[in-house]
Write a structure and sequence with these properties.
The structure is a single chain. With 448 residues, the protein is an alpha/beta fold. The chain has 3 domains: 2-205, Rossmann fold (3-Layer(aba) Sandwich); 290-338; 351-442, Arc Repressor Mutant, subunit A (Orthogonal Bundle). It has 18 helices and 12 strands. A 3-stranded parallel beta sheet has the order 1-2-3. Strands 4-5-8 form a 3-stranded antiparallel beta sheet. A two-stranded antiparallel ribbon has the order 6-7. A hairpin with a 3-residue loop joins strand 6 (124-129) and strand 7. Helix 14 (363-374) crosses helix 16. The chain is elongated, with a radius of gyration of 30 Å. Bound molecules: glutamic acid. Residues 21-23, 55, 160, 174, 178 line the site of glutamic acid.
């Protein structure tokens, strides 16, 4: 916690209770994740309670796969609920009971189709938004408010009010797109005689063209970013910056410090721009700071999941590999794209690289000569490999590019790889030797 004067909302005893209330009708969107994060940060900062509520009364659109995705994405970000998950679908009798109260009070009526509708009194509805200030709306714009639909299921606005009230939610933090719903909810609070919570509507997230972040802009779900290989703490840090700033122009602020610094009152009301470059930069900062063993854990988990690495893998070898590629990756997914040759036997040979560097006069002979010089090296270490290679080039009067480029293609299958001698050392003696042979074999142009 920062010392200094506590703000009104972080005063001890404020007993903050907030909720994140996703509907499992799609994968967890970046915007929803940011809503979850701001609720979580506010709760952690104020030592309050963060509740996860699943709004699954839309039985047609709700799907257990999406629910799994929501859990996995929140888990990835380290957003853990203090209470819940609470399922609205398990609370149907409660909504019926509360609808009955309004019927009994003559404030609601049963429609022909069996649905229950609240008769909204004509009035000006005002609520105070923590970020937007007072918002006033004329209730004539939403005269009849459905509470329970013909199928017996509650509407969003009704279930939301009943739950927020019964769960003693103190602050409703949600996306700007719900501002128009809030007056409808406020009239329901009044009808029940419930005290409304503090509302806090946070800004939309937009893409480069300033329209709401959607598929057109690229990845929109947390899971897609996880798959690309952003680190959880980098993504957490990045999401926190979407509408909030720690001050002092700081951007790289680790999760624990964000919790200490976060102030809901300081969230901006203007749309938050999803800046892919900033996310990439932040991820790079976090990657750089990881120790080899921690990075190795992250990478091993991915590669095992992808079936690229065996569950029982050689840890010491794997850490040497990770140390070699540590500063060559931007996101974890770069490994599967660029460094797969460490895990394939033989590697996949890139045709362009083969044509350019192997299908050249004399290449096969040069690679075989190199193979002979490297074969006796023991231990098979980068300095010894480099020394033998340079000696051979000097003896033969070869330019480095006449040997180094073909050798790189032979061992990696590609024209770009980590430094050659270290790559060979990590591949090890046997694989390097057999790949030089393979390169020599491919270097012989097939007679037409
Ligand atoms: N289920 C609603 C949504 O996902 C919740 C809105 C709210 O927080 O009240 O948009």
């Amino acid at each position: 916690m920062t010392s200094g004067s506590p703000s009104a909302t972080s005063a001890p005893g404020a007993n903050v209770r907030v909720r994140f209330a996703p509907s499992p009708t799609g994968k967890l969107h970046v915007g929803s994740a940011r809503t979850a994060l701001f609720n979580f940060l506010f709760a952690r900062h104020t030592k309050g309670t963060y509740i996860l509520r699943i709004e699954d009364t839309d039985t047609k659109r709700s799907n257990p796969e999406f629910l799994k995705d929501i859990y996995a994405s929140l888990d990835f970000l380290g957003i853990k609920a203090d209470e819940g998950p609470i399922f609205q679908s398990e609370r149907l009798p409660i909504y019926k009971e509360y609808a009955q109260k309004l019927l009994d009070a003559g404030k609601a009526v049963v429609e022909e189709n069996g649905g229950i509708v609240f008769k909204v009194p004509f009035q000006k509805v005002t609520f105070d938004d923590m970020l937007h200030g007072p918002v006033t709306m004329d209730s004539t714009t939403f005269e009849d408010l459905a509470l329970i639909k013909a199928d017996g299921l509650p509407t969003y606005n009704f279930a939301c009010v009943v739950d927020d009230a019964l769960m003693n939610i103190t602050h409703v933090i949600r996306g700007d797109d719900h501002i128009a719903n809030t007056p409808k909810q406020v009239v329901l609070y009044e009808a029940f005689g419930f005290k409304p919570p503090v509302f806090c509507h946070i800004p939309l997230i937009v893409g480069a063209d300033r329209s709401r972040l959607s598929k057109r802009h690229g990845a929109t779900s947390v899971d897609e970013y996880r798959q690309v290989g952003y680190l959880p703490e980098a993504f957490f840090n990045y999401l926190a910056l979407l509408g909030w700033a720690p001050g002092g122009n700081r951007e790289h602020v680790p999760p624990q410090e964000i919790i200490e610094l976060f102030e809901l009152e300081k969230v901006r009301t203007t749309a938050a721009f999803f800046d892919q470059k900033k996310l990439d930069w932040l991820n790079g900062q976090y990657l750089k700071q990881l120790t080899v063993p921690v990075l190795a854990d992250h990478i091993a988990k991915r590669l095992i999941e992808a079936g690229i690495l065996e569950k029982q893998y050689h840890r010491r070898w794997f850490e040497r590999f990770v140390a070699l590629i540590h500063d060559r990756i931007r996101v974890l997914g770069d490994i599967e794209k660029e460094q797969l040759f460490f895990f394939q036997e033989p590697p996949v040979y890139d045709e362009e690289a083969v044509a350019k560097f192997l299908k050249q006069d004399g290449v096969s002979a040069r690679l075989l000569l190199l193979k002979e010089r490297l074969a006796p090296i023991d231990p098979f270490e980068a300095t010894a490999i480099e020394e033998a290679t340079r000696k051979l080039m000097a003896e033969q009067g070869w330019e480095p590019k006449q040997l180094i480029h073909p050798a790189r293609v032979a061992v990696s299958g590609k024209s770009v790889s980590p430094p050659l001698f270290e790559t060979m050392a990590v591949l090890g003696h046997d694989r390097t030797i057999s790949r030089l042979e393979e390169g020599a074999r491919r270097g012989v142009a097939v007679p037409s």
